[in-house]
Amino acid sequence: MSKQSLTCTEQNFVTKAGAQRYTSEHGIIVVAPDTSPRGCNIEGEDDSYDFGSGAGFYVNAKWKKNYRMYSYITKELPALINSNFPAIPDKQSIFGHSMGGHSALRSVA
Known about the structure:
This protein is mainly alpha-helical. The protein is about 35% helix and about 0% strand. The protein is built from four helices and no strands. The protein is globular.
């Protein structure tokens, strides 16, 4: 039996959505991070499509230091963006597709 994982990466949006022209015309910053730890070589990370590499759950897994995606998406990434780009902190949003979309809805403060 071969190992499987989701092949979804940030490139699905970056190359297929066509949002760059619209966002450029309207002065909108779009950040498309890959929210899955990849290449961590954690035992079992690719054993299931819905967990580990490729999974889009924005959670802080208590059992692995590399799976801290909730903190990354809601704290670390916005701070990084705000300190390096002309962003407006109170005019930001998080969105995603599939479980990433569900997780984004759950992340709303």
